[in-house]
């Protein structure tokens, strides 16, 4: 005798059609492919472009705020920095105010690569914005920022543990 639980196919269709997570993942993958393809001539992926752009500041930032901006933990950020360091585009240095911490900076060569990639990013972004209905790119951006600011605690149903 089987103890398997049968979930109706109609539930599968409901999740397919309504799951925000599924649709966000699909959109993220499509956007990642679009920008990866566009930025390839500059030698960057979309993730590397975002990471390098987050380092384009007047003063080298510590790892924590960069990781937070990119919604990743510091271990993942460290791994993402490695190929950029090997290419000589990013430097990681000791924080003089806290020797345990690290500061991140674009090198001159990294700034040059970013300068090459920026017009490609602008052109790709403009083409994408044109394909979306009027004003919807701003609304989409606003909605995505709202979702990224939510926490597990914000989303838990009352009296229910998700873990």
Automatic annotation (TrEMBL):
Organism (species): Rhizobium redzepovicii
InterPro entries listed in its UniProt record: HTH_MarR-typ, MarR/SlyA-like, WH-like_DNA-bd_sf, WH_DNA-bd_sf
Limits of the HTH marR-type domain: 17-156
Pfam families given in the database record: MarR
Source superkingdom: Bacteria
Protein name as it appears in the record: MarR family transcriptional regulator
PANTHER family tied to this protein: TRANSCRIPTIONAL REGULATOR, MARR FAMILY (PTHR33164), TRANSCRIPTIONAL REPRESSOR PROTEIN-RELATED (PTHR33164:SF105)
GO terms (BP aspect): response to stress
GO molecular function annotation: DNA-binding transcription factor activity
């Amino acid at each position: 005798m089987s103890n398997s639980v049968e979930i109706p196919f109609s539930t599968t269709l409901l999740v397919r059609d309504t799951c925000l997570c599924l649709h966000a993942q699909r959109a993220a993958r499509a956007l990642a492919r679009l920008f990866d393809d566009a930025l390839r001539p500059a030698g960057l992926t979309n993730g590397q472009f975002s990471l390098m752009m987050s380092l384009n500041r007047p003063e080298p930032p510590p790892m924590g705020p960069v990781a937070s901006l990119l919604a990743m933990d510091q271990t993942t950020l460290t791994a993402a920095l490695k190929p950029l360091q090997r290419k000589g585009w990013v430097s990681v240095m000791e924080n003089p105010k806290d020797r345990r911490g690290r500061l991140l900076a674009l090198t001159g060569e990294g700034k040059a690569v970013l300068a090459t990639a920026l017009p490609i990013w602008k052109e790709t972004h403009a083409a994408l914005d044109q394909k979306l209905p009027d004003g919807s790119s701003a609304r989409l951006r606003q909605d995505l920022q709202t979702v990224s600011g939510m926490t597990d605690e914000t989303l838990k149903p009352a009296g229910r543990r998700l873990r």
